[in-house]
UniProtKB/TrEMBL annotation:
Domain of life: Bacteria
Keywords: Oxidoreductase
Protein name: FAD-dependent oxidoreductase
SUPFAM superfamilies noted in UniProt: FAD/NAD(P)-binding domain
Organism: Cupriavidus malaysiensis
Signal peptide boundaries: none
Pfam families reported in the protein's UniProt record: Pyr_redox_3
Lineage: Bacteria, Pseudomonadati, Pseudomonadota, Betaproteobacteria, Burkholderiales
InterPro entries attached to this UniProt entry: Auxin_biosynth/cation_transpt, CHP04046_FMN-dependent, FAD/NAD-bd_sf
Length: 427
């Protein structure tokens, strides 16, 4: 979709806006939707193209892990005929393209933000590859998953092993022949390992501390139960972990083929080789922590704990549902294996699935804590006029997802409107 804002000249200051949104993903576009409704002048700056990560950072067999009915971007709810299904990659892109058309945001694509600085007199200077803009208020909607994480030990692996980050994985056929080592068992790692396993590839999986959950339980999708239980409305301030929940790894499950559990133990019984956390590579051997059994047990404990909460809800409300059940291990490691010779195992490629980190190096405003994370309350920072949107657990579980971004965007739009000048509201 072409830019809807004229290209500014590369001068000392291209133009001043009431609000500048940094990031043209679903978060930035959701806020643009509400600002347009309020008549607030604004500009969206996008380094690549709108919603580009959905085009470039998803593998071919990717699908949603939450049911389609949770796709509830503002003014653009899911309207298909399979609300309890799971859209595939092409369907997700089509859904987002429809959202872009509906919002028709004022956007400059292919515009990288180099720095955002607070001005002594108020407002911000936004330096970009297409000039410097002024703004009364700035919303950072660039996402919490920008920079792929690859450990330094990757530098020491043999040159014969091809290394791929999860954002660059496409399909089993695109990898060299031989076995594949998948490092990390969060949502991406578990699903990519499954994708390779189903294709008949020999998979070695370094299992981390990610929890798991059931896809269906007692006659319904677990997401449906948790929504009815109001879990997705729980604000971070009321979560038992408080802000610590933002550091949690997402539960692994899949929407593939209509949705099912991901059971790493079953994969192991079928031939997938499971190890603990990858710690090092030296003397020609991969070194793993002796924690596979613990990681599998903890993931299963979370699985059973979520189901037990559903059991309690069903009992408390007298709901007629199929009987409860308890997951019992389909396979247990005989012993912890802490070493692996990748060449002897025939490993031809490694896929790093250990996550992403945010990149706020360009934001030169003192709002960060000691861990480099932005401080905010429901997206409102301590610095007047600076906001964040689209981060995991910004307010609720759905803050970084299609299901909860509208609520967060509407809230920030109201705060922004309250701080706008009468001229901006009349624009």
């Amino acid at each position: 979709m072409p830019d809807t804002t004229p290209t500014p000249p590369a001068t000392s200051e291209a133009r001043h806006y009431s609000v500048i949104i940094v990031g043209g993903g679903q978060a930035g576009l959701s806020l643009s939707y509400y600002l347009r409704q309020a008549g607030i002048e604004h500009l969206v700056l996008e380094q690549h193209t709108m919603t580009h990560t959905w085009h470039t950072q998803r593998w071919d067999a990717f699908c949603l892990v939450t049911p389609n009915w949770q796709c509830a971007l503002p003014g653009h709810p899911y309207a298909g005929d399979d609300p309890h299904g799971f859209m595939k990659k092409d369907e997700i892109i089509a859904y987002l393209d429809g959202f872009i058309r509906a919002v028709a945001p004022p956007v400059l694509e292919h515009t990288e933000v180099r720095s955002v600085k607070a001005r002594p007199q108020g407002g911000f200077a936004v330096v970009t590859t297409r000039g410097t803009f002024g703004a009364d208020q700035v919303v950072v909607a660039s996402g919490g998953y920008r920079t792929p994480i690859v450990p330094r030990l990757a530098e020491r692996l043999p040159a014969s092993i091809r290394q791929v980050q999860s954002a660059d994985y496409r399909n089993p056929q695109a990898l060299p022949e031989g076995a594949v080592l998948v490092v990390g068992s969060g949502q991406s790692g578990a699903q990519i390992a499954e994708d390779l396993h189903l294709a008949g590839r020999q998979v070695y999986l370094a299992v981390g501390e990610a929890p798991r959950c059931a896809r269906f339980y007692r006659g319904r999708d677990v997401v449906d139960w948790l929504a009815e239980m109001k879990y997705y409305d729980l604000p971070v301030t009321e979560h038992p972990l408080r802000e610590g929940v933002r550091d949690n790894t997402n539960h692994y499950v899949t929407g593939r083929d209509g949705g099912r559990d991901i059971d790493l133990r079953r994969f192991a019984a079928e031939g997938m080789e499971l190890y603990g956390v990858l710690e090092d590579y030296r003397d020609g051997r991969l070194r793993f922590a002796p924690d596979l059994r613990r990681n599998l047990d903890n993931a299963d404990a979370t699985y059973n704990r979520i189901n037990a909460g559903i059991d309690q809800y069903i009992a408390a409300h007298g709901i007629d549902a199929p009987p409860p059940s308890l997951y019992t291990p389909a396979w247990t490691p005989a012993a912890e294996r802490t070493e692996l010779d990748p060449q002897a195992a025939g490993i031809g490629s490694v896929i790093w699935c250990i996550g992403f980190r945010p990149d706020f190096g360009w934001l030169e405003v003192p709002v960060f804590n000691g861990r480099g994370h932005p401080g905010h309350e429901r997206g409102v920072s301590a610095h007047p006029g600076l906001y964040f949107l689209g981060l995991p657990w910004l307010h609720t579980w759905g803050s970084g997802r299609f299901s909860g971004i509208a609520r967060d965007a509407q809230y920030l739009a109201e705060r922004i409107a309250a701080a706008c000048s009468p001229e901006a509201l009349a624009a």
